[in-house]
Queue: 2 jobs
Job 1
Amino acid sequence: MNEFELYNFNPVTPEIVKQLEAIVGEKYVIFDDVESLEQYSKDEVPDPAYRTMPEAVVRPSNKEEIAEIVKLANRENVPLTPRGAGSGLSGGCVPCCKGIVISIDRMNKIIEIDRENMMIVVEPGVVANDINEHLEGTGLFYAGYPMSVETCYIAGNVAENAGGGKAIKYGVTARYVLGLEVVTPTGDIIELGGKLVKNVTGYNLVQLMVGSEGTLGIFTKIILKLIPRPTLQADLLCLFNSSDEAISMVPKIITEGGIIPTSVEFMDKLSVQAGCEYLNESLPYQNCGAMLLISVDGNDAEELEEQYITIGKFCKEGGATEVYVADNSSTSERIWSVRRNIAEAFNLISKRQCNEDIVVPPAQIPEAIMFLEQISKKYGIIIPCFGHAGDGNIHARVTCPEDWSDEKWHDSVPLILGEIYAMLRRTGGMLSGEHGIGHKRKKYMDQVVSPEYLALLKGIKKTFDPNNIMNPGKIFDMV
Amino acid sequence: MNEFELYNFNPVTPEIVKQLEAIVGEKYVIFDDVESLEQYSKDEVPDPAYRTMPEAVVRPSNKEEIAEIVKLANRENVPLTPRGAGSGLSGGCVPCCKGIVISIDRMNKIIEIDRENMMIVVEPGVVANDINEHLEGTGLFYAGYPMSVETCYIAGNVAENAGGGKAIKYGVTARYVLGLEVVTPTGDIIELGGKLVKNVTGYNLVQLMVGSEGTLGIFTKIILKLIPRPTLQADLLCLFNSSDEAISMVPKIITEGGIIPTSVEFMDKLSVQAGCEYLNESLPYQNCGAMLLISVDGNDAEELEEQYITIGKFCKEGGATEVYVADNSSTSERIWSVRRNIAEAFNLISKRQCNEDIVVPPAQIPEAIMFLEQISKKYGIIIPCFGHAGDGNIHARVTCPEDWSDEKWHDSVPLILGEIYAMLRRTGGMLSGEHGIGHKRKKYMDQVVSPEYLALLKGIKKTFDPNNIMNPGKIFDMV
């Protein structure tokens, strides 16, 4: 039974569309237009099975309009799915119960740069990258750096608690969210937190909202903490003969070296190749066995140099065949561009993929990578791996061989994932480090979390959303 | 109506005590012994109005015993109040509904130091300071540093989301809590999070638990993140003629200087004097108008020196009469000791005090301090101020003049606090930055938060604790 059948929602009628038009203006409602609606049916999950056409799309311009739409949805028993840039990887913004998609793309203003408090106040539809562009010259920066930084919206980053390339040093999105204005699933407009770096006035609903995948409300204003922008950065590209060698460097650098790099990105052979091919890049290293992209930043040139020399030395001792240092921004950008585009590159190679986002204790990464290699041999498939090795978070692309039938693929996926998730249970890992559960992983939740935990999540959802109209069918089902 | 009358709890009968004894052993239950029970009736709130005698105290040694006790409390409709070291400042561990106090003092083991993952696993009753003592020689440290670090338990730090002296650079307790084992208010034992630096598998209940003041469960195991211990630290003691001058330095250092100090502690004239007198310290600076204690840490001696020279220069330019540098640990400890003991010093001076824990946007600290000075003049009282100026978090001790009657004091407190809280609303501040709401501040909650927010808190509480037996009467009342 799919979600649409599971819940007894009403269809979006022309009468409801009229009400939507009355709220936001005719121009900002899409209905009865397959071509226009189709782009709201998906995110970056390659498998077409995770697409659903919305019945209508509405594009409000302010919180009052959103509150009205939410009240309408409750009144009419129609599901709402909030949508950012659609760059997610777990189907979080896909309207799996049909109904209305509520797009925040028109709410894209930087409201305030508050230099004295080192904060920025933004609307939800601001592109993540634009934040740092607006901060140019202030000496401040926002530390969030998801790989989709050039397209994703900040509200999506908050809703998914995006991680990204700098989390090992700067933490994930959650650390920077100080305040939220939210339209609740019942249509109230509430303020949570504020321009406060500390606050224990009641339960921490700001942090409950972060990572709640659009199931507990729609963000209409976001207050982010900024930090002084480091003036210097250097990137090291370290080539290894094997994944094992590369990955075993990670805990060494941090614990023995006492260095917290800004980034420690791992790419296996297949990932490097895919990224290079996609960008039509021809780089000397694209045939290496595995690669680490390690960044350090700071304000003191000597200290920075000392750090990258130490890291380089560790890597050489650990079997690196080459260590390149990129200390200028154009070389850095070339290297990072390969890393940022791997996901997209793989999406083009095959639609028959499961993009897993496993997270384990950081020191268990070598064990996890070895296990994935065993699994790929056992099933005769490839599982390219890349990601944020320093955080224990690896993206593993379980990829269907070209000569497999769809049937064989669909029969094998649950077996393969079952083995991977059993490994996660053994190592203290979890299903997702940064992509979220969404629609795609909810059926596997009970393999790693307890029924008591799930019951608490559902209780919280019920408190916020008694009619289950806000992004239903995500993370868990209300049954 | 007090909490005991508000809720229809049953008394703790000798039969219930027998059941408690059967769970933990006779030796670990206190009943019918006023002298022994009395020490569990209070925390560090000086006002005796915030004390309540428990009917019984139970001291379990493991999670299974706690789960049994919780189930018993549900069955018998008797309230439970979890208690750490009793060093709190909002009445959080005071059994305001009578019933059973559950003390975690026997669960005080360091379970594991995991150097590879840079984490430590501890039982809830470990004294915060002991964590870093155990880490001596590992190159790692736990960044939490509440002022009660020598006595407080880590579970209390987590329950209150303790801030402390290093939050400006390292963040508050929340940032370091990666995993929790919790006995829920219904007696289930659940694991939340784990040895994971990133995790978006379901709502972030770890962060919901942090700061929930013992109302959503009892922590039985805590996984904390560690960071590389900086090898160098320097403390600057900067004396000023006035609070204004001192406080206006804070945003300057951070935004203009681009320096995030480890600590920026502010003490006004009265606070410095009280701290010195309490310790019988005779220091050259105890008659200054106000003082900033600023620490910086790192691994590079030159960078550190550059930082404290810059800070010293800013302070001198801003009117500092003296800037002392303490770069050895014994001088540092002497200075910090004064700061850590201010709260205790004031507690001895008068029981008729309100220890406020206001938090405002950091840049609004000068405005808040000026306002408090106006208020103290208006009412003819003193309001010594000290605290974590860098975080926007100030402890303001509203102190009753000796010649006021109790009646005049009790009539004036709501008026004075009403004005202070109105200022908080105007500046975007909140009631508490790190001490919590507890029993003491709940009646003021509706002055700063919305009814919709409070309703969500109550809904969450109901989900976790349908019978309202876990630390009832704290943060809000379930009515």
Job 2
Amino acid sequence: MTENPAPAPEGADVDVRERLVELAKRRGFFFRTAGAYGGAAGFYTFGPEGAALKRAVENAWRDRFAVAEGNVEIDAPTVLPEPVFEASGHLDTFDDMLVECADCGTSHRADHLVEDHADIEEAEGLPPEEIESLIRDDEVACPACGAALSGEPVEDFNLMFETAIGPGSGSPGYLRPETAQGIFVDFPRLAEYARGQLPFGVTQIGRAYRNEISPRRSILRVRELTQAELELFVDPEGGGPDLAGVADAELRLLSAEAQLDGESEPYETTVREAVDAGTVGNEWVAYYLGVASEWYESMGVDPDRLRFRQHVAGERAHYAVDCWDAESEVDGDWVELAGVADRGDYDLSKHREHADERFSVFRQYDEARTVERTDVDPDMSELGPRYGGDAEAVADELRALAGRDPETLDGESVTVTVDGTDYQVDTGHVEVTTETTTETGEHVVPHVIEPSFGVDRLVYTLLDHAYREDEVEGERRTSLALDPSVAPTLAAVFPLTDGERDRAEAIVAELRAEGFAVEYDDSGNIGRRYRRQDEVGTPFCVTVDPDTHADGTVTLRDRNTTEQVRVPVDALVALLAALRNGDRDFASLAAEYPVVGDGDGSAPAPDPGGE
Amino acid sequence: MTENPAPAPEGADVDVRERLVELAKRRGFFFRTAGAYGGAAGFYTFGPEGAALKRAVENAWRDRFAVAEGNVEIDAPTVLPEPVFEASGHLDTFDDMLVECADCGTSHRADHLVEDHADIEEAEGLPPEEIESLIRDDEVACPACGAALSGEPVEDFNLMFETAIGPGSGSPGYLRPETAQGIFVDFPRLAEYARGQLPFGVTQIGRAYRNEISPRRSILRVRELTQAELELFVDPEGGGPDLAGVADAELRLLSAEAQLDGESEPYETTVREAVDAGTVGNEWVAYYLGVASEWYESMGVDPDRLRFRQHVAGERAHYAVDCWDAESEVDGDWVELAGVADRGDYDLSKHREHADERFSVFRQYDEARTVERTDVDPDMSELGPRYGGDAEAVADELRALAGRDPETLDGESVTVTVDGTDYQVDTGHVEVTTETTTETGEHVVPHVIEPSFGVDRLVYTLLDHAYREDEVEGERRTSLALDPSVAPTLAAVFPLTDGERDRAEAIVAELRAEGFAVEYDDSGNIGRRYRRQDEVGTPFCVTVDPDTHADGTVTLRDRNTTEQVRVPVDALVALLAALRNGDRDFASLAAEYPVVGDGDGSAPAPDPGGE
């Protein structure tokens, strides 16, 4: 996961960022783990509200990327043995560049320092020597103590957490740096489950670990994160997806070519156009860019603050043929939310080389093919005396020729070359056999298309894009305009006075039985209860008042507009379901039911109990 | 997690166990991870069916132990820094006993070896020296190579996986051995979220790690597991739970006392009786034993193969005041599924000692209390000359006395003892002050009640208790009688012939839109499709046939009885929902709808297409 520090259209507002992080801690969204022990950099705990939001994101991802697409889901361990990462390449190449300050001992990510100081946007792909030069030339200083870093070595640091499996010194294992490897390494069993039919997709939602040199910006760059990944195994010669479902999905694209031309603004297009124009080379990649774009919007990501940026050369991971990142604008920076990568046959070919099992599928031909195989049996009693020490090599060349170009053996003699020397061999000394076999298919190493999503960063983005502040009568009020489909609490139910407690609690019980996330609150005045719910992003509040006993209606309040309508208790289940699913919006309710007051902002609800 | 190797009522059937594990691998429930690299002992991957079953278990646990009980859920990192485990005691005491064979180098869990060889049921609590003696006296041999282990040292081996956080040598961190510590360590923030009101409960579902010396029996003893834990923070002087909801829940209990009396059969009682008789000392523990008992049964655990066994002295973890394990009988052994522990104030007191923040809550008195505090100010210019080197100690004793027993300072003189010497002090040399303060409450360290559930072991138990074999016409048929509430697939839909494919696919789409897990299968004859679904525990199969076009009905088949009824397509959603929730059983459908055939076992469905 990389961040592109290029400035976003709007300037960063550090105060707002700090207030959002403070809100997240105070109201139980997320906070640094083990604060009582000074914390550990890069580790965060999701409190009750944050865990609920994160779960909603995970469930929505599962619905869209697994269930709706017919992809299965597995659950593999987070610790994997060393041979997996020898094969995958992570042991050799999953590095960041580290420079340590000789004065204060602080470690820094060298490429980020250079990006911050020098006029370079993307330093990750540069060799360490070049980074050292840039540090020297630009007189980069240690951000912690100010000492000059010039002359300090820049070294590769592997980002995997290592541990030892088993007693004694154990055997080395690593916390997986991506959930993907748990899928690739057991491809043989998963292919069997899919009955060997391509394409098939396997998803996983779970932890991944990266021992970042400089974790920063709360949950945006952490050492333990949650990924939701789909590994789609496709036939490299097979057809692409049916684009129909997402052909018109809008994409804001920033291609590698445009970036090299100095462009920083994405241009708007559709999936169909991007495929037709060849901007996105692989149709599966384009398909999932479309799915991702629509999904992010449905989650509550501001579409104007979302773009898809293609990796430029040098930026791509060691396994990627092509990759497009979904990036959201947060605090004035573009932050990577997801990558949709074409990994080619890299992963399965690597495991195929290193492991004992079959990392391919058998592709049946439409009809069986008859194949002629020519083989040769050179007569060594003839070749030996003639070619001496080169005789075996001559025989090997003849065998290779039989596979490559059997017709050349039809003549009376044939010329083979060994170490630059041409030998003319009498074909009478070579027995040529031709066998005809029927082949029903062939073994194919599938290619992998990988939409890989970061869950933590999306949670942060949803909070950031939903964060609202306004001032009412000199007091700053904060609300989170979270989408009803992901809000930790869909509705809060309040009794206006003590006389309505039982009725309110009965409504809570009924709504919970229907599977809605509902809170009950009877403490403090109504205005204050609204503020509390606004702060944690609860979209709707239901107030039970004395009229409820009389006419069976309650007040339903919309967080975003503070509008209120009077609806029958009996209609609540259906209305909340429709509001959550997006089948209705609040404006349509205001057209159907009596509107009450003119919003609680300017006309606060009465305070029966005071505080 | 410990296993009690005491034999179960029924003998173990190793063949059945092997066939279950083979089924689990072949049909995608679980398999050893990275088999292509020889695997890593103690690490398993849940395939598509197993991951779905595991997720159903986790969701059901969340519904029952978090949502229904009003407990919140958090999501903390799996890697925690060392100070957390210094405080928790895991660094010192989370050990198993290791003995290594000098001949072949294999490591073994010493207490298990002794339990297998000597006439000892529970060796975990014995000191290493005693285990060494037992190995010598019983001539225990290495199970791997047969060499004598007598004389080999038995050593404590810490079960936590260690890693290094950050670059360079980093700072030590550990993979959490229980999810609980992620909750305890951030108690200050969680208490703030709960507004300091006891009792409050915090749950977490996630990975825990134990570097087992000898992982064994597939997913029953693994190195990476999933726990579902509830940490309930209660006021040690506060009231217990309302038992009403579970008072009549049945419990099969085996108390520590009964075990010491040589009893191995549990006796049947209820939660209310167990509390009244004092068998279960803590009412919160009893409450959650009742909840657990009912919940396990609802998941599909055979109630006759479930018991609750109290830990005997020496068996309890270092933090537990009391603990009852839920154990299920699997393959003839009793396996720990969960523990409901009274952890007392151990955890919060430990973190309170080691950390900087407040690990207590403020308990308001019903009414403010007036408290008199006596303090003394000894006149050192008088005491110094009189008591020389002991003067400071005498002053300290006087101050202590003022707090302990202020009345003694009312007289003209008072006697204090320093290092065995009595000094009679003139109270005229001591200024005594009395201050009256009003206190509104006090700081209380909550006690912790912890229901802790192992998810992997429950998944195994559900498969084991659901496993059925029978022979039909000389062929072994396997089915999994999984409960509809947890089965990976609720219903499979089959077109009888190609003519019904569209209709069948439309039904699948409709059922999926309602949130049901539904599979479509059109390959092979109907009997074979039934077999496939029976093997993965799909409770219901829907067959669309030519009559469906005419009368709008389909055949609905029950896996357990192979009975079939003819139901309207329009009724499917409601019927499947009722069957899944347990509101109806299949027998009630057979009473309402026409029964078809007499089950497919003896009268196989016609085979329209062959294979």
